[in-house]
Design goal:
328 residues, alpha+beta, 14 strands, 16% helix, globular
Amino acid sequence: MIRKLRNTIIVACAGAILAACGGGSSGNGPAPGPTGSGNDSATITVDNAELTAGLVASVAVGDGVFGVLSDLQIPTIPGVAGAVVSNVAELAKPSAQLATSSAVVDCAVDGTVDIDLTVANPLQPTEGDIYALQFTACDEGTGVVTDGGMIMTITDLDGDFNTGEIVLGISVQLSAFQVTEGGETTGASGTVAVVIDTSMPPVTTITVSTSALATSGDGTAEAVSDLTVSISEDDSMFPAAVSVDTSFTISSPRIGGEVQVSTSLTLQASGDEYPYVGELRITGAGNSAIVLIALDAIRVRLEIDIDGDGALDETLETTWDELLALAG
């Protein structure tokens, strides 16, 4: 669930800001409040090791993390990004936009997006510009309905949009933000910082960080805190070479508390595939631990230390797909 929301944030940020400067290509549940760490550490056991590793993998690599760099205009959740890109583009036309612009725009099928822009220069994005979006049952005809608030503030902007070589920093504040698809509602609240760096082609780097992002879905509330994930893609190779480094804490009642995660060996992937090499270390109560090892783009190994003495107690092998399916 977290990977969908993070990818939506990335796409919405890139799409809205690129559209605003004329670039780019063409069952409810309550949203949670943000929480930080402070929960009891989860004790890692053989029984919960796969689920724990699955939750960690969903944050670190998820379905769309590698693919999202290939084209920032492809929405992971089209109901969000589609509305943002098309409607902000309308407001951003020089004839329509003043220092402050607002409009309520109908979504393709049903619902609305209330858009408020506060900008220093109507002709180009500027550090300090604010893009406030309020979704009300927004249905773009893709099977996804979006509700809640998203406020994007440009925190850093350097480079040339005409060449596409830029560093773009955005703070994204989510308030009662939720998406519903296939009867399942996923919500999020918190503030996320996103930096998109295309200043050194053919390499693109996206860094996502948050002190606390709370999510809910299927009746389960989870939280990620102290998150930093850096995703780099080198387009000089085909398929593109992708690398991921990350660290975070994830808390879930499904595993009985929280675990800390760090990258002990950079995850590397080819194109949209899962990592073929790399390691994540997952640490729980009493130094119990899992080392998640990418064997190839299909298989992973879990090396489990249940008593924290540094000795290997159990080894499990599974696939990336099976592991991520456990996270839901």
